[in-house]
Every structure is written in structure tokens, then in C-alpha cells.
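Input:
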Amino acid sequence: MSIFERVVKVLVDAKDCDEAAVKMESTWAELELDSLDTVELVMNLEDEFGVQLEMNESLKTVGDVVAAIEALL
Amino acid sequence: MSFSIIGTGSKSPSQIKTNDDLAQVMDTSDEWIQSKTGIRERRILGEETITDLVVESSLLALEDAGVQAKELDLIICATVTSDYITPSMACIVQRRIGANCPAFDISAACAGFLYAWDIADGYFIRKPDSKILVVGAEAVSKLVDWNDRSTAVIFGDGAGAVVLGRGEGLKAVKLNTRGDETALYAKYKKGNCPFRDNGVDETGQPGGHATFLHMEGQRVFQFAVSSMCRDLKNIVKQAGLELDNVDYVLPHQANQRIIDYAISRLPLAPEKYLGNIAYRGNTSAAAIPILLDEFAKQGQFKKGDILAFSSFGAGLTSAAAILEWDK
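Output:
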């Protein structure tokens, strides 16, 4: 599974996102995640990938998160 | 050596404010507040003071315990919103309930009530026959900025108290601190000392002013959920138990979403988590003693039940405890 596919799985499992709706360019608002949801997402991604992530202004889309994880692995 | 809870008491403020009431005075809605926090209404002080609520809670806890105020060996109040900077809330309560023991406050924000249990535990080691009154009380409505809808909607006021006596109820208590004065804070005013620049407040008065409560929601949420999951797992182990042995979890009533996250992460049935945030809001240090008193008075607990407590807040502080109900 690619990093993107694993991120999608976390979004679907943890935040009930619609799998088909999750694209690389999807923003948190488009996925109906609020600021606390994004914190949960980061914690779930840290568990999934075994990395330390910090949710900040530079992570605006699913693609941003995928790139950040790629850089850490 | 440890202690047992021999009496509980709590007292609600006089005003009930629903989400619709808040929507009258700020840009918010019932739907928004409920979906973001799980809160439907909260209790707010009217003309009475937080000290009044503490006195009434304490008298109820003493009555429940069958203990006279004069028999108390110590009074500890956990609060950051006392009516006075000095004397402490505990000193005023000591006088008003007619006790004559030492009394002091502790400042550990939402986790303060469990911090006070750890202090009390030390006193019981020195004198196992002690009777100690522990109070958690907050008037957060005095501290929040009612122009800041992100914090004002979350909090409520209240007071709860327990009387601790000789026993082996407390099985484990553990405190954690991760010093951070930027995630969740309120600052004292600087005063008017003429030998430095104290700034001016927005009305032009010298000395600056105490700030309202400031909260970095995301950072506090992350601290809260990770603390709660970690602390509950660790405290059960420290008590020599398994998570399966826990009959009820009494978590700090900060935000329903924090509790929901813990439910999703810990192998404990959702019905084991007791809560009242929907009609109490977040009452900081008062949340756990109020929750405990409400469910104790409803007869929820039977002898031998294992209760797990978890709290977290400004500091950043967190704490957890395991207590066998033996009242």
C-alpha cells in the first residue's frame, strides 16, 4: 500500500471520511475535519507510520501530510 | 497506608444557561456547541460566590461522612478562581464551616482535585486517623473572556467536596507535569510599582490587568487525549490491576470529544465512562468531585467497585488515580 493509501485508510477508519472523496488535494475543510479532528488525525498517523508529526499551517491538504510523512520515513 | 472516601458533597450555582442563552450574547449556536463539545447547558454563578458553594458542598460532604467540622485535620482546596488572591479559599472555608485545622489551596488547574488527593495521601502516611476535607471548586465564568466564543461556551462554575478518612480505598495516584505557560493560561496583573514599566490596560489605567483565560485548543486537545490514554493505562498497572478490573472511569469533563477519543483508543466499554458535561460544562477542578458526588448519591457505586480517575489541564498538568469504593 502506498503512503497515500495508508493515509486514506486512517481517514476512513478514524474520521469516517468517504474513501472516494479523499484526494491528494483535499483540504481538511473539504473532508469536514475541524481543528480538533486534525489533531486526532495526526495522532493516528503517528501510530500508523511510527513518526512524529506536528500539525501546523504548512499541512493544508492530504498531499501535504503524505509529503511530510515521506520526508520522515 | 492510604485513605477512603467517607463523604461527598457538591453544590450547583443558581443560574442555568443553555446554548441558546449563549447564542443571545455571542455569535454561536446550539448545534455548533453541541457538535464541538457535547455541552447543552452549564451552571453559572449568579449573586452567590464560589466560596458560598464551597461552604455548602463541604457541609454536605461532612454531613454525609458523619464528621463534625471540628474533627477535621486538614482542608485542601483545589482552585484557580478563588474570590481572594489572599487569604486562600481554604482559610475562608475553615472559618465559615467552624473548623480549626490547617487549611490551604493548591493551584493545579483542572487536575487540582487529584493533585490534592496525592497531598492528602502523604498526610495519611504520617497520621492514619486523619479526617481531611478536599475540595475542587471553580468559577471559570470569572476567568473566561465572554467575547471569546471558543472558550466561553466550554466552561461552567461549580464546587464539589469529599471527606477522606482512614481506610485502604486509594490504590494508586500519579501526577504528571509538563510545564508550558503558552498553551493554556491566565496572567496576574502587574501592579503599580513605580520602579518599572507595568504598561497600561485598555482603559488607560496603569498597572496592566489580569488577562482572561487563553487556550490553544489544538495543543491542549492533543495533551489531553494523549495524557488520558497514557495515564489510565499506567495507573491501572501501578495499582496492580488490569483495565478489565475497572468498573467505572470518571474522567475530567473537559470536552466530550476528548472522552470519545479515549473510548476509541482504550479497551474499555463506553458505558463504563461516567459523564455530566452535557449539563455541567467544564468546571475545571470541580468537575471530578461533582461527577463523583452525583453518581455516588444516585447509588451508582457498590462496595468493591474499582473507580479510575483521570484529569488534565493548565500547567500543563495531568493526574490519574484508582480508588476502590468502600463507603
